[in-house]
């Protein structure tokens, strides 16, 4: 029985000894495989889509290598949907009036820490890929202002749809504000065709020859009083324009008249005759 025990111990020692690598078979940090880039997954946003609210970006960092590396300095980017304008590069973003009525989303470009610099690599195959593909979240709902609503203009009209040079046009519109704020100094614009008429910023306009043969349009941007004194309170509404008039007609006048037409001088060959008239 003692002999069997000794034999078993000898076999076990031999097997365990065979598992140790020798000096000629060293395994590198990534199991002799090229490093691939890290991955950002589950990219999303938390926070209210309201002016004054702070949004936070979230994601999961993964380095899918045999020897995973820790996260380095990953790149963050907050953007406005549509024009993809960059508005921030931190993990959080404070919404301002600039994002009002817009959709915002968050992007991250994952970066891993490197275990070998480019100078230390013996060939290109050993250069580590430390930056992964940029991933973005779904955009938020349109950013709203919890403190109030913009004023509105409606029923914008011009009193004369078939104007003539010299006419005075008068515009009218209805002003409203869901918060009950009174109207301040709203902004007026007159257009001849598609061009803004310089210095025409009142509710009436006298047409000149410069507007002849052009359609006329009146636009208003409603402005309300800031009765609540909130910073960035929405006091300016959206511009609303009237329908265009018919092309402006030339001013119709009377033809000139010549009268008392006379000829003076001797009626003979070689004589000089003079004509005269009243205009």
Structural class: mainly beta
On the 0 to 100 scale, the average pLDDT is: 84
| Most strands sheet | 4 strands, antiparallel
Q: Can you write the helix and strand succession as a string?
A: HEEEEEEEEEEEEEEEE
Low-confidence stretches: 1-27
Q: Beta fraction of the residues?
A: 25-35%
Itemize the secondary structure elements and their pairings.
Layout: H1 2-18, E1 39-46, E2 54-62, E3 75-80, E4 85-88, E5 92-94, E6 104-109, E7 135-136, E8 152-158, E9 168-176, E10 187-192, E11 195-196, E12 204-206, E13 216-221, E14 240-241, E15 259-264, E16 274-278
Antiparallel strand pairs: 1-2, 2-5, 3-4, 3-6, 6-7, 8-9, 9-12, 10-11, 10-13, 13-14, 15-16
Task: Describe the structure using short key phrases.
single chain; 279 residues; mainly beta; 1 helix; 16 strands
Report what the structure shows.
With 279 residues, the protein is mainly beta. It has one helix at 2-18; strands at residues 39-46, 54-62, 75-80, 85-88, 92-94, 104-109, 135-136, 152-158, 168-176, 187-192, 195-196, 204-206, 216-221, 240-241, 259-264, 274-278. The protein is built from one helix and 16 strands. The strands form five sheets. Strands 4-3-6-7 form a four-stranded antiparallel beta sheet, with no helix packed on it. The relative contact order is 0.13.
